[in-house]
Amino acid sequence: MKKVEVLAPAGNLPSLKAAVDAGADAVYFGFRNATNARNFEGLNFSEKEAETGLAYAHQRGAKAHLVLNTYPQAGDSDLWHRTVDLAAGLKADAIILANLALLRYTRERHPQLPIHLSVQASASNYEAINFCQRHFGITRVILPRVLTVGEIKELKTHTDVELEVFAFGGLCVMAEGRCYLSSYVTGVSPNIEGVCSPARHVRFENRGDKLQTRLGGVLIAQYDEGEEAAYPTICKGRFEANHQVYHVMEEPSSLNILEMLPQVIEAGVTSLKIEGRQRTRSYVGAVTKVMREAVDAYYADPRRFHPKTSWIKALNSTSEGTCHTLGTYQEGWQ
Ligand code: SF4
Asked: From the CB of 220, is ligand 1 less than 6 Å away?
């Protein structure tokens, strides 16, 4: 039986190596420019580092997917085209794209390069997925985090495109590829610049015994002494509404599907994706190791699979936010 893929994030070369060494079947990473949606300062790969990373993965039997999932502006596609050409020249195992024009460009220029449809494309139904397969030859889709396990299972009966789903990591409000919240205070769009809350717009300021976090000058949250401060994003801000200060849009939490791993695999998915290219090498290594062990344990004895306490503990220590959730996978709204 072919095992589901464990797919790990790599924000830099040390993280890529940590992921492969911890047992990832594949890694995904982007270049150091606006073509990928984790365009944080200090992260991502130069051409040389990408070449080294691909070689490191391939020598150890792992695959490497290159991410180009932002949206070029009309008349300003050169950087995106050059980066697609670069990914093809480096012989990446797949390229992850969201933009229709780039899908077409890649299909026409590099027909041998497998295309995965990014979560940023927001394709959550089989008609959209099959359309992209028919016109652009996509081989895989990364599903938005809005579907139940039942819906994923049903969707799979209507498509032979491989399904990749998120298994662990930070969550946001899940308007995947359509969120412009941070652009209202920073003036730059995450879907074009590739970064929500760019570091140059972020401030951590001490005010008396409080710590304030700001984005584009807007107060996002205020923390008491000793309280752990989160990186400021609008959707997870603590704002005042109805005379109360609270997480108005979303409580910070991490997705963790371990409890539902058998159901997710049996729904027909090909790949389990770990979120977190912006996270540290130790996060990548620790989460990949747990996912590797959990997937292997499932295939060793699917009916008796149960998440180990040590796995939960290891994942809890890496989590963003205050709680874990099964996200929409467990919802019963279908
Ligand atoms: S503001 Fe929140 S929902 Fe929007 S892209 Fe940023 S993290 Fe995601």
From this structure: no
pLDDT in tens, 239-284: 999 999 999 988 888 899 999 999 999 999 999 999 999 899 999 9
pTM above 0.85, yes or no: yes
Would you say the CB of residue 173 lies under 6 angstroms from ligand 1? yes
**Ligand 1, atom 4, residue with closest C-alpha:** 179
Give CA 12 to chain center in angstroms: 15
Q: Ligand 1 pocket, 196 CB below 6 A?
A: yes
Q: What are the structural domains of the chain?
A: 5-171+253-330 (3.20.20.70), 183-247 (no CATH)
The closest of 291, 258, 308 to 26, measured between CA atoms, is: 291
pLDDT in tens, 59-90: 999 999 999 999 998 888 999 999 999 999 99
What residues contact 55, with CB distance under 8 A and at least 6 apart? none
